[in-house]
Amino acid sequence: MTRNNPSGHDVSMNTSFAYIRPLLRCAVLASALALAACASTPPPTEELAAAQLSVARAGDADADQYAPQDLQQARRALEQAQAAMANQRSDEARTLALSASALADLAHARARQAATDSELAARRAEITDLRQQLRVEE
């Protein structure tokens, strides 16, 4: 089949398959890239489990007493991470879970430091008492 182009010459309407093949490849590649971009990242189950363990460990270290604000922030971040996970927002859930872990680790460290400082103060008080007893006995 032929037709006239604007210059008046006959042009073949049969486009060769060789011309279409690169276009077809580009279309397939673009579709594959679009699907890959739309695919969600895997759920952050390991990050959530680690965050739960970190929060529990901080609670066991008496962070409720010694670092309550840090522990409260960690618990809030963990709850938000779990909600994001339930709503299929894996990237947000992962970020929040990592934040919860970091906050819980901070709360744990501060609680341990406070407990250690308290223990040190108690030992120093004992030493002072013993020194006073030794002076009395002399």
Would you write up a description of this structure?
There is one protein chain. With 138 residues, the protein is mainly α. The chain has 2 domains: 37 residues, no CATH class; 93 residues. It contains 5 helices and 2 strands, in the order E-E-H-H-H-H-H. It has a two-stranded antiparallel sheet with strand order 1-2. A hairpin with a 5-residue loop joins strand 1 and strand 2. Helix 4 runs antiparallel to helix 5. The longest helix is centred in the last third of the chain and has 48 residues. The radius of gyration is 34 Å and the shape is rod-shaped. It starts with a strand and ends with a helix. The mean pLDDT is 83.
Task: Tell me the span between the first and last alpha carbons.
Answer: 124 Å
Helix content: over 70%
Kindly name the structural category. mainly alpha
Number of beta-strand segments: 2
Any chance you could write out the topology, listing elements then pairs?
Blueprint: E1 2-4, E2 10-12, H1 17-38, H2 45-60, H3 63-66, H4 68-86, H5 90-137
Antiparallel strand pairs: 1-2
Helix pairs in contact: 2-4, 2-5, 4-5
